Amino acid sequence: MMAAMVVKSHPQTPSTRLVSLRRMALAVLSAALFILIAPRVAWAQSAQEAFKQGLAKFDAGDCDAALPLFETAYEDTQSPNARLYVARCLVKLGRDVEAYEAMAETLRLAREKAETEEKYAKTRDAAAAELAQLEPKIAKVVVAFDTDYDDAVLLVEGQEVPAARQGVPIAVTPGDIQITARAPGKKEHTATVEISGGETKAVAIVLEDAVVGEEEPDEGPGLGTLRIVGIAVASAGVASMVVFAVTGSMAKSKFDEVDEACGGQTCPDDSHNDSIDSGKTMQTVANATLGVGLALMAGGAALIIFGRPDDESTDQAGIELSPIVAPTLGGGMVGLTGRF
Fold first, then answer.
1. Rg value, the chain, Cα
2. Which of 110, 195, 201, 266 has the fewest CB atoms below 10 angstroms from its CB?
3. Which domains does the chain have, with CATH numbers?
4. What pLDDT is stored for residue 16 in this prediction?
5. At 164, is the pLDDT very low, low, confident or very high (cuts 50, 70, 90)?
6. Could you tell me which of 132, 153, 156, 152 has the C-alpha nearest to residue 143?
7. Of 232, 69, 219, which is closest to residue 141 (Cα–Cα)?
8. Is the pLDDT of residue 147 over 60?
9. What CA–CA distance (Å, rounded) separates 334 from 339?
10. Contacts for 297 with CB less than 8 Å, ≥ 6 apart
11. Residue closest to 244 by CA, chosen among 164, 303, 336, 327
12. Partner residues linked to 139 by β-bridges
């Protein structure tokens, strides 16, 4: 006769039930973390791989293939390093205006990150130096309406300019720049502005009523075209002074770094040449932007002071008054051209 095996189950005590629940919760948490982290790890690896492939293409001189790889890496990581190489590719491809915008964005990103992460200081310094090298290759135009028009549309080279960018410098390719402005109840205005590399021109747009003979309510004199242009030019000068402050601060930082490392004396070897060269570059950029900034602010102030209100100035619509600003060895040059 075979004996039957009886298995007895032991009732769980409160402590054993608690241990089981903890183990179950830990297993669920681990699974959830894996589900959340695994895609992010794969995404980071993918962005890193795109950047590495982009570097290989860039070093081989194939910027057509490298550019989309760097753009992918930047979109995924928002890294200033990836943005820097986007700008460098655009330079090599001859797309100077896009390169200027990308390099300016690189400088902004790297400057912010370098405040807490020292590794981005070199990216910041490189972007500032390369941005200065792009300045003579592009032109800038400052376009503003003489007054607020409801639902106004402003186009520069066929591209709509958002309200936030009206009245501030816009990078353009040197040459003849087409500007179009329209608003409900107003005649469309088109102007062509000739501008050279390294110049900044300001244009005030005055729109004429579409219905001839219909009088608008008298709202009093406006600022006047010259004053509108003056405000725009002075704003550009303030922007140049900001660049001067940033690059001047970076140059001083490099000087202090070398001075401390060499004990306040001439360095005995070449170990600090990179820092010295970087400091000299920052100093050159700072001096150039100081001269241009002062020239812009002085020219803008003169236009604001000597400009007349709208009721004392010409009634001709579509007036173009273009202060010319160009860097020189001594600082900057300011002039004023007009087309009526």
1. 30
2. 266
3. 31-122 (1.25.40.10), 139-211+221-339 (no CATH)
4. 65
5. confident
6. 156
7. 232
8. yes
9. 17
10. 234, 237, 238, 241
11. 327
12. 172
